[in-house]
Write a structure and sequence with these properties.
The chain has about 300 residues and is mainly α. It is built from 13 helices and no strands. Helix 1 runs parallel beside helix 12, helix 2 crosses helix 9 and helix 3 runs parallel beside helix 10.
Length: about 300
């Protein structure tokens, strides 16, 4: 879902760590579907708050808490982490909304488009030179989005918002001068005061479901925190031991599972322009992947 990787060889440990992360992300809609009765904002706030103890525990086990303390005393680093935290929060919120209101297929489309958007960002922002197959892949994906827009009479906002926020998050994360585990912990710590303020305000209004509707909802919301922190940390550590080309191929695992869940389990309609647009996106991804493997 994000960038990473190494120029060296792949390790089995790195592959397994990244695979576990992608499988968790791919199956996440099944878990989130059990919380459709809970407001998106409460799921998001609880997801942030309950990520913190897990992230801190991981840093303590790894002996990297000093890095976090130093980062929290560095204003420039805090500002950069504030930007990545804001981007990932918006991304999480849109994804939660998409799954909880029955637009899981749009979420899958957004994450299929994301690798190609990252390639375009690299060309526009980092001045990376794109090959002809890469330009063709970007153009094909753009054509698919245009087709969906023409059919619906409006842009596929959920898909494009997920693509935009995750692509910008990955770009900003590249510039964050701190390890991935420390960076994630710093992000959720920055987000926690606002999340707690919202939770206490909702509780004062009698609208908070956590702790008021039974243990099932409590456990689901606690689990949402774990399913936020664990795959991100698994991915961050696994990606360091894999080649960029390997990560490039593996990042299709999660949206593929999300797509299958949306169509075959949630029974979301796969009609209109979608049976044309999705294969166009898949063809674009195949172009991009084959070109990446050839150059590697």
């Amino acid at each position: 879902m994000a960038g990473g990787g190494t120029a060296g060889g792949d390790s089995l440990k790195g592959f397994l760590l990244a695979l576990m992360a992608y499988l968790i992300w791919g199956g996440l809609p099944l878990y989130l579907n059990m919380m459709r009765h809970i407001p998106v904002t409460e799921v998001l706030a609880q997801r942030i708050v309950w990520s913190v103890p897990i992230a801190l525990a991981v840093l303590w086990v790894l002996g990297r808490t000093r890095d976090l303390r130093v980062a929290m005393r560095t204003p420039r680093l805090l500002a950069m982490a504030g930007l990545t935290a804001a981007l990932v929060t918006v991304n999480w919120g849109i994804y939660l909304y998409a799954v909880l209101v029955g637009h899981t297929l749009d979420a899958a489309l957004g994450y299929f488009i994301n690798p190609l958007f990252s390639v375009l960002l690299g060309a526009l922002v980092l001045r990376e030179k794109l090959s002809r197959p890469q330009w063709a892949a970007v153009a094909l994906a753009g054509s698919a989005v245009a087709l969906l827009t023409i059919e619906a009479g409006e842009l596929p906002l959920v898909s494009l918002s997920l693509t935009l926020t995750w692509g910008l998050y990955a770009l900003a994360k590249r510039a964050l001068p701190i390890g991935p585990n420390q960076g994630f912990t710093l992000e959720v710590l920055i987000l926690t005061p606002a999340a707690l303020a919202w939770i206490f305000w909702q509780a004062s209004q009698g609208r908070l479901l956590f702790g008021t509707t039974g243990w099932a909802d409590v456990l689901l919301l606690l689990g949402a925190g774990a399913l936020t922190a664990i795959p991100l940390m698994l991915y961050a550590n696994g990606a360091k031991m894999l080649r960029l080309s390997t990560i490039g191929i593996m990042q299709y695992i999660a949206p593929s599972f999300v797509f299958l869940i949306a169509v075959f389990i949630f029974d979301e309609p796969f009609d209109g322009a979608k049976p044309i647009a999705f294969p166009m996106i898949w063809a674009a991804l195949a172009l991009y992947t084959l070109d990446m493997l050839r150059r590697r």
